[in-house]
Write a structure and sequence with these properties.
The chain is mainly α and 143 residues long. The protein contains five helices and two strands; from the N terminus they run αααββαα.
């Protein structure tokens, strides 16, 4: 049995950092292009490109959220610490030894409902998806 541990990086910090750090890097790369542009209009071509890149990044971030969290609720998957968090009390007979047990009652009361609910939401990993999306998009734009 794996012990329960809180997230290493809490969701609010992941979302704030995963969104704002690449956003800032994109601004640092694109803003000098706008300022050094030969066009002297307020809305020059480089400025429009910069805003399009930021909007595409924001849209992709939202799509990543939808395509990660949606299947997580529908498909789910037990996390390694599920047995410690739930301590299921299931009647297992010889006929159900090799089958997936769906009829059980959690006997552990040490953890709250939120932790129990999250222990059933393992796949796909939101932390990995957001980190990779930000890193890949920023890498493509910056170089």
């Amino acid at each position: 049995m794996y012990p329960y541990r809180d997230d290493t990086i809490p969701d609010p910090i992941l979302l704030a950092g995963g969104f704002s750090i690449p956003f800032a890097i994109i601004l640092l790369v694109e803003l000098p292009k706008c300022l050094l542009s030969q066009e002297k209009r307020v809305y020059n071509r480089d400025f429009v490109i910069m805003w399009k890149v930021l909007w595409v990044y924001s849209f992709g971030f939202t799509i990543t959220e939808i395509f990660i969290q949606g299947p997580k609720f529908a498909i789910g998957g037990l996390r390694p610490h599920f047995l410690e968090v739930c301590k299921p009390d299931a009647c297992i007979s010889n006929s159900t030894i090799r089958s997936y047990v769906t009829d059980y009652t959690c006997t552990e009361t040490k953890y709250g409902e939120k932790v129990l609910w999250q222990s059933r939401q393992s796949f796909p990993s939101g932390h990995a998806a957001f980190s990779m999306y930000g890193a890949i998009f920023t890498g493509i734009i910056a170089f």
